[in-house]
Design goal:
This protein has 16 helices and 14 strands. The protein is α/β, with parallel strands linked by helices. The chain folds into 3 domains: 15-221, 3-Layer(aba) Sandwich (Rossmann fold); 227-368, Nitrogenase molybdenum iron protein domain (Rossmann fold); 388-416, no CATH class. The strands form 3 sheets. A 6-stranded mixed sheet has the order 1-11-10-9-12-13. A 5-stranded parallel sheet has the order 6-5-4-7-8, with helices on both faces. It has a 3-stranded antiparallel sheet with strand order 2-3-14. Helix 1 crosses helix 7, helix 4 (68-90) packs parallel to helix 6 (161-170) and helix 15 (389-405) packs antiparallel against helix 16. The chain is globular and about 85 Å long. The relative contact order is 0.14.
Length: 420
Amino acid sequence: MKIIKKAKERTAEDNRRLRGTVAEIIDNVCENGDAALKEYSARFDGYVREELRVSRREIEEAYSRISEQELQDLKEARKNIEAFARAQRESMSEVKDFSPAPGIFLGHRIIPVSSCCCYVPGGSYPLYSTALMLITPARVAGVRRIVACSPAVHGTGSIHYKTLVAMDLAGADEIYAVGGAQAIAAFAYGTEQIRPVDMIVGPGNKFVAEAKRQCYGQIGIDFIAGPSEVLVIADGQADPEVLAADLLAQCEHDPNAKGFLLATEESLANRVIEAVGRELESLKTAGIARQSWEDYGEVVVVDSLKEAVDVANEYAPEHLEVNLENPDQIIGKLENYGSLFVGGNTAEVFGDYASGTNHTLPTVRASRYTGGVWVGTFLKVCTDQRMTAEASGKIAPLVSRMARGEGLEGHAVAAEKRLR
């Protein structure tokens, strides 16, 4: 393995200060409710809304501002996301009356959570695609109360009109103009205007991520997300201009985002670096993308595809692209990724918006133990069992012996009461 471009080491953030700041915000919201939310809106958003919930009139006004083409684009993207979510839901089946022994009947039901909040970031860009990605699978799962929230555009008190339309199209029951760690606290614990939910999903900045971490247990979450990342495995047939574009598409998200290329040929690696430089000359988001690429962009030449697979599995990226002449030779060996994009025709950005898979994915190596948001995120698999008198009497001695072996006398007695 030869490193052509090395990323700088990520310095540890002042996590203690971050934890303390977020804890203060959560405590303030719990103690002061809506007053705290309005305080933070004035400080961070430059505007205070008296009514945090977005009205139907505001939603209709958003529809009046969106172009017909933009509306059709949202509808087409939603259609693909919904179709795949339904296919995923149909792949999950309930178990009824499975019998491991005569007279014992086991099963499980698949039950949607009762309520969820879909957090849609609204910082540097209006991420209306995230509204589709979160609300649509929740709706397919059958969640009865789907709440959406997003920060207001600074100084306006209003959520960006495209985001608002996307939230409504996807099927949100309630929409609130509130964001940041304070929004997570509000939907976890409730305020005068906000009823709490059972689960919060969606990406956000480090304050949102830390608030989700601290509120976990009070509510369920999807996962803790960090800066966006893409890892690309490519050989000599790949187009350097395409690879450069895919890397910079991630870099423009955030100065801390990461683009990582594993090339099988050094000449390809150098051509991609040159192509990145050319694209940065004209890219409108070059201010962010250049900093991300210079600080965290990485280019490595691997000695073999096996080495590429090993590096990818160890890195466990959010997005993994395989741009090889014969990608199938390694697909089955790749185990840790949020979402996989196979072949040069399959741009990662297609999954970001409209192909149908979800773009809310695990980062910072979390794909070692979880996948991204999907319809199953909003579903609980809950077991049940029933027994005949004969089966109860037969299993009771076994359970009694095991319980006494653990020193749990009450457990043993509860089993022995079933002996006939």
